[in-house]
Specification:
3-stranded antiparallel β-sheet; 5-stranded mixed β-sheet; 2 domains; alpha+beta; 6 helices; homodimer; CofE-like fold; 250 residues; 60s Ribosomal Protein L30, Chain: A
């Protein structure tokens, strides 16, 4: 039977700057008697990665630029928050209502450059990791060193979407795996050659993990077991980023 | 431990027009010794729903309009296929490269109106169900009648996205559940009031199920067990459709 299991790693508690996440995750697994296995996928919430890397900012220490003040007024947002968002962005894609959709320095198109005020402490915001693939690789390497197991790692965040209501979690960084599953050129049972069969499996794994994480449940790490992941030593979330020239919605 | 399990229902085989899917799914579960439980979620691939409802078209029986011919030439597509796509659409949103992004009569923004040539037989295409929420309700009701169990049902399809490469599966119809999880107004552990916390859980469940379905594995039904779904008798995929007036990308 094709089967997938997801379980949440609980009891990780508050993560502070400088924390070694690989170690923390292994400790969490141990305390729940979870033994990591080769080919397990670990989905790690961006928020704890950002905290461990010290990627948090106190809004009262931010001096908003004139542009940030103007945008903040238009969008009914905190000028200091807008300043932080602009600092994380290479381009503003759309504004409207209270929404500020940007392209981040990494190339993600998302609301507020992924800058987020929840679960980080009042008056503070968390930024996305500077190089989320590297963050994922560090976690993967530390787990390999501690347990001898070769896992895939996905760092996830909740992104809004065009056209549809609600966020879904997506991958913002990966390590040890391919982000997509490309079946173009293969045939279905009727002999039809598949033309559009590229699935964003890293995003689907992140979405699945969100069902276990929730937003308020204190489960920042989820183990996904049973997925036949395609290993790739230098896998990168960049596989998932549509180049601007091929994008009809930028 | 927070835990989620997904298992694929195999051996369903080719589905023909007029098939009773609830019965077929129950038979499939029985043959794998899966006992359905209250609160299980069933994710059913759109393709078998469309086939059961006779929503397939032979392209050689389609007479393309002048508009379809023109668009087909621009986009290097089959004129008959474009004619079918236009018939399923209330509006063309973008064209470019070989892509034809439309808004369907249901209100979905997606490529090709969900019209799809794979896994349906050479020279044929499958259309989305006419009323996918109703299709989901029929499956749910039939399962309830046959097993006495109250399950949630999601009909899923693979949709492309703006900005990111690859498809993810999303819900195109639901029954017996809420499509979103809305935690706005509740507080995180630091006392911060969550402002953007609306998760498209039906889409996340569909995405998770795709990891088990695959495109070529003959697993059109996946059971998701362990998710604390919010029941809603008149749940609808319309909860997930962003009104055009609030959409920055239409």
């Amino acid at each position: 039977m094709k089967r997938l299991e997801l379980f949440g790693v609980q009891g990780i508690g508050e993560v502070h700057a400088g924390a070694r996440l690989g170690q923390i995750i292994c400790d969490g697994c141990l305390s729940q008697a979870i033994e990591l296995a080769d080919n397990d996928l670990l989905v790690v919430a961006q928020k704890i990665v950002s905290k461990a890397e010290g990627r948090t900012v106190r809004l009262d220490e931010v001096k908003p630029s004139e542009r940030a003040r103007q945008l903040a007024q238009e969008l009914d947002k905190d000028p200091a928050l807008v300043e932080v968002i602009l600092g994380e962005s290479r381009k503003v894609i759309r504004t409207g209502g209270r929404a500020l959709i940007v392209e981040t320095h990494h190339g993600f198109v998302c609301a507020n450059a992924g800058v987020d005020q929840s679960n980080v402490g009042l008056g503070q915001v968390a930024l996305l990791p500077r190089d989320p693939d590297r963050s994922a690789r560090q976690i993967r390497d530390e787990i390999q060193r501690l347990t001898g197991k070769s896992v895939g790692v996905i760092i996830s965040d909740s992104f809004g979407r065009a056209w549809r209501i609600g966020t879904v979690d997506v991958a913002v960084g990966i390590a040890g795996m391919k982000a997509i599953k490309d079946e173009r050129g293969s045939q279905d049972h009727h002999g039809y050659e598949l033309k559009a069969a590229v699935a964003a499996v890293a995003d689907e794994v992140a979405a699945a993990a969100e069902l276990v994480m929730g937003k308020r449940d204190g489960v920042p790490v989820v183990i996904v077991r049973g997925y036949q992941l395609e290993k790739k030593e230098d896998g990168s979330v960049r596989e998932l980023l549509r180049p601007e020239a091929e994008d009809l919605f930028r």
